[in-house]
Amino acid sequence: MKTARPMLWTWIAIVFGFFVWQNTMAHGLANWLLEWQYSDFARFRPTSTLIGMVLLAAIPAFIVYLLYWRRQNRRRIGPVSPVAATRFAVRQLRILLIMAGIAAVGAIASLLLLLTLPSGDGPIQPVSVSGPVGAPLPTGHASIDPVIPNGPQLRYTMRLLMTDYVVRYVPVSTGAGATSRLFVQIDDSGRVPTRLVGTMARNALPPSVRNVFIENNLVSPGPHYVLFTQPDQLPRPYLLAAVQFAIAGLVILLIALLQWNNVRRARRSADRMMEDNQAVDQPTSDQPAPDQPAAAQA
Question: Where is this region: Disordered (predicted)?
């Protein structure tokens, strides 16, 4: 055990150094993966790629280490009682089912939040940028004309588990001074047309974006509004969150299915042990029962 752990970390260090060398010299598997990412997705992630390759290459070493640790643990502890093994397997199965339930709740909550978003269908509602200060603005399918930027654009990158996307938020002048309560979301090109049509949502700025605008005194007190020019930008985070929760739940359920098989095997072993113990304790035909009187033996 004392030599297995250093060997494991030595293997990981060798693999890490090998892939770093490949990445630095711009050839080999690491460079091929980065070129594939850039050609297909117009961006690449060297850090995530390096971590993924190291983890994949370390899987055989982890398997060997776990098998060695299991054998050494059995020698030190001795044979485990089938009843204790059953209890431990059932406890692990319950934990996995709880985790799968949490993932399911997360997916359902994301879909329920998605239903509360304003719809981009229906007639277009014009938004007056010179209306009374503090008057509520329409939500849903809306248009802004004219669009007069009231400050610098803020480039925002939302990084998700499998992908990311880049958008820009622009404060729009509403004739109420230097601050704004109306913002538009545009693509990464940064071009702001004079008329925009999209889906208007209330208090829809990401927290980090809103904090930056507040620090630069660009947000008016009270509720703010965001016009999303791309139809999929408003529901996309909720859909991706639901998909990621669902994938995590399915993976956990698959592991729980394997664990349920372990529980069945452990219970069969415990049942066989109980049957063997009962057969040993049961008296045979030529031996009297322990509580039988001596006269009956004669």
Answer: 274-298
Per-residue pLDDT tens, the chain, 298 aa: give them: 566 677 777 877 888 788 777 766 666 777 777 777 766 666 667 777 777 888 888 788 777 777 777 676 665 544 556 677 778 778 888 888 998 999 899 999 989 988 888 877 778 888 876 655 567 788 888 888 777 777 778 888 776 555 567 788 888 876 655 567 888 888 777 788 878 888 888 888 887 788 888 888 777 777 888 888 877 778 877 887 888 889 888 988 998 888 888 888 878 877 777 776 676 666 555 555 555 554 444 4
pTM score: 0.57
